[in-house]
Task: structure prediction
Amino acid sequence: MLIDTPCIGICSSVYGDPICRGCKRTAKEVIDWNRYNSGEKSVVYQRLQAQMALVLVQYIEIFNPEVLQEKIITLNIRLHSQVSDTERAFHVLRLGANKIKNLNSFGLRIKPEYADLSLTVLFNEMDAKIYALASTAQ
Result:
């Protein structure tokens, strides 16, 4: 199912955070989103994707994007219309880090240097780094 926003329903900008801890948009981008034209939205999507990819590739390898996409469909995970494989991987981890037993069955594998981390710890570390990147890009 496709949606037209990077929002993941965990908005912290309404509580005064300058960067939303959920979608990593600025508070202004969250507020103005429905007024943005497709070009303005695309610029935001591209920045968010680049930040996510920069962090995720340090920890995770996407070895089978087709299997990952099949899992997204099977699990009925809602993603925005301009989604990348990196975002698919990130959102699978966001939603299932504490439930997934076999990451390989999602077409993903943890890079060897992080293999000793639980998926929950791994996700939290990646999310914190993406938030830090979003904060410095503001």
